[in-house]
Model the fold of this input.
Amino acid sequence: MSRLLTAPSAHAIGAMLLTAAMFYGFVSGRARVEIISLLTISAIALGLYWFPLPGQAPTDGLKLAFEGFGHYALITICALMVLGRGLVTTGALEPAARLLTRVWQFNRQIGLLVTLLLAFGMSMMVNDTPVLVLMLPVMAAIAANGGLPASRTLIPVNSAVLIGGMSTTIGTSTNLLVVSIAGDLGLPPMSVFHFTPIVLLAALVALPFIWLVMPRLLPDNSVEAGHEPRRFTAMLRLGENSFARNLPRDQMAARLPADVEILGDAAMGDQMLVRASHDALEETMRILGATAAPAWLMDRLHSGYSRTGEDLTVAELAVTKDSGLVGKGVASANVAELYNVAILGVHRAHRPWIAQPVVETAVESPFDEGDILLVAGSLGSIERMSLAENMFVLDGAKELPRTAKASLALAIMAAAVLPASIGLVPIAIGRIVLESGAASWLSELIALGLQFLPPAGVLAAVMLFVTILTNFASNTTAAAVGTPIAFSLGQQLGIPVEPLVLAVLFGCNLCYATPVDYQTNMLIMSAGDYRFKDYTRTGLPLVAIMVVTLSGLLVLRYGLY
Done:
């Protein structure tokens, strides 16, 4: 029997328009996620203050908009981020990394399998990003010592991390968000391992593809295979006696290594902008008598280290999503004064979907997630910078863990997880979508198309819908919007709410198909020198495998056949 679709209320239309605008803001990348989120909350607060929901006072709208800042889910998410960072900083997970190295020396295929299982297991209890930050330098070192090229292992390892994070309520912040919203709407509390068996079975189905097929679908981007090494853009400062001052471009290029690209004019007074690999950049500076950082800074570094006996170390540091350097340039980052470190060059992450900086501002343009900085300083200074700015070392130096506190970090994490595993006790866009009637209207609309499908088809459609939102926008937003819709859809179709909520939760975690949908995807993009098509080639089959498997398992688990 067909259903009649009622007209949405004015508040429901406003909520849907605001949600669409928020999604557009996330996808366009024209403003930072934090700015878009704050603007959305402000719009909800002002809108409900001037136009309250039926039966509510203006101040109730302010409460709805801002009470998320004190929500237990937000506090839990922040606490887990701190705990995860503590495990990495103290080196509590280092023994697992050392075990990996020994296994890879024995057999590469077994080494990859153990790596995937280890990444899966760690991300069940630790947020995905710290786990990947730990694994990245390990995989780079394994590749350098005869293992598989990093470009063939990083996406599989990242996939294992994402699936592991999906298996517990504390594995990712998105899981916590879905579970907390569902709890607020009346769903019984879920323990940490409530849906772990379902994900474990799905992971077993997906494992052969991730382990055996996915590496074959990825390119070998190693230098040994003929792939171009990572190239850094640098502004060279020419010395007073440099022959290169005002030298024509063709004469300049003839004296430099073949892979050095001169950008702009050959020499702009006492400066020259170039793009080259690390080795070629070093050779260019030697030939030209130039420095990639201000001469006074390099003199200070050399004189300081000559007194202490320390050598200058050159390292490659990757910018993470939560790094303090995001949005800053070489000058505004002020790392010379803060850490006594010089930035020699910048490798920009490949982002064909956004405009790239013009040549004249290629060095000073603000850093973004996935960019890699070539820095020079003492090992201790580089370590302090990487820790303070939430960066991780790709090459050259190594972040030394504070092992004295490793056991304490593990104990704190265990103390936090064990009580939660017994029972996890019971944000603004999700609330407004629900209370405005938008969730009810949208669920009616979706029900028109899904009413003739079996439960497995409904669950797969919901999961796929949320997956699409997740892969092209924000998984947290998809969770906040999708959870109340799942509640209303269950009432419309007569399907239990819990499997629909889990379909939303799983869909929010199936973010394998694009580099922009989750921060760990961007983290590995520069490290593996990936292109957009590498994610779609490997991610779309994995999404299909997980959607079909998880939908079937939900049907069996809740007896919907």
Q: What stands out?
A: The CA atoms of residues 26 and 33 lie 6 Å apart. Confidence is low (pLDDT under 50) at residues 396-403, 416-426.
